[in-house]
């Protein structure tokens, strides 16, 4: 089946973003609640990212750093994420590896939504909360915008990777 113009462009967006992922070494983030209760995830953080390739289409991010809440209390944090490029399906999947490499928590597939952006295809449901994400990237960095909405949550987190 021949590739359509849109499909060729989508694959190019995926490959351009994939190359950006491979070079990431740092992150900063800002979290803010949109909840009226103000008990949300307000704060900011920064850290380092070390990545490990597993074949040509899998990249593991190990994130470590510090997070400071609105009251200026500082906490250490760490996360492990697996990014998987699937050019045939036209997506990059994102999984959280908090339970280990053999027990990933699937978050969502990201598909091209513009020349320099990807958006979650479907939302991730965790208990009563819905997680979605959008990525915007340029030559220097990318921003992963998380939205978490549920009965007790209305959060927005902007991760900046460079």
Structure report:
The structure is a single chain. The protein is mainly β. It has a single domain, classed as Lipocalin, CATH 2.40.128. It is built from 1 helix and 11 strands; from the N terminus they run αβββββββββββ. It has one helix at 5-22; strands spanning 26-33, 43-53, 58-69, 74-86, 91-96, 105-114, 117-120, 124-126, 129-137, 142-149, 154-161. A 10-stranded antiparallel beta barrel has the order 1-2-3-4-5-6-7-9-10-11. Strand 8 and strand 9 (129-137) form a beta hairpin. The longest helix has 18 residues, at 5-22. The radius of gyration is 16 Å and the shape is globular. The model has no long low-confidence stretch (mean pLDDT 90).
Q: Would you spell out the secondary-structure blueprint of this structure?
A:
Layout: H1 5-22, E1 26-33, E2 43-53, E3 58-69, E4 74-86, E5 91-96, E6 105-114, E7 117-120, E8 124-126, E9 129-137, E10 142-149, E11 154-161
Antiparallel strand pairs: 1-2, 1-11, 2-3, 3-4, 4-5, 5-6, 6-7, 7-9, 8-9, 9-10, 10-11
What would you say about this model in short?
It contains 1 helix and 11 strands, in the order αβββββββββββ.
**What fold name goes in the CATH topology slot?**
Lipocalin
The shape, in one word, is: globular
Counting structural domains, the number is: 1
β-strand number: 11
Quick tags:
1 helix; Lipocalin; mainly beta; 162 residues; 10-stranded antiparallel β-barrel
């Amino acid at each position: 089946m021949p590739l359509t113009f849109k499909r060729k462009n989508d694959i190019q967006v995926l490959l351009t973003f994939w190359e950006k992922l491979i070079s990431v070494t740092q992150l900063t983030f800002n979290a803010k609640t949109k909840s009226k209760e103000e008990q949300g995830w307000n704060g900011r953080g920064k850290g380092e990212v070390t990545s490990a390739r597993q074949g040509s289409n899998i990249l593991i991010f190990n994130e470590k750093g510090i997070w400071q809440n609105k009251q200026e209390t500082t906490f250490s944090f760490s996360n492990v994420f697996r990014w998987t490029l699937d050019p045939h399906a036209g997506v990059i999947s994102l999984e959280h590896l908090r339970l280990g490499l053999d027990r990933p928590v699937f978050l969502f597939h990201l598909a091209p939504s513009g020349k320099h952006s990807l958006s979650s295809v479907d939302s991730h449901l965790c208990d009563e909360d819905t997680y979605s994400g959008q990525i915007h990237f340029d030559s220097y960095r990318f921003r992963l915008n998380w939205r978490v909405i549920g009965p007790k949550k209305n959060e927005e987190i902007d991760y900046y990777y460079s």
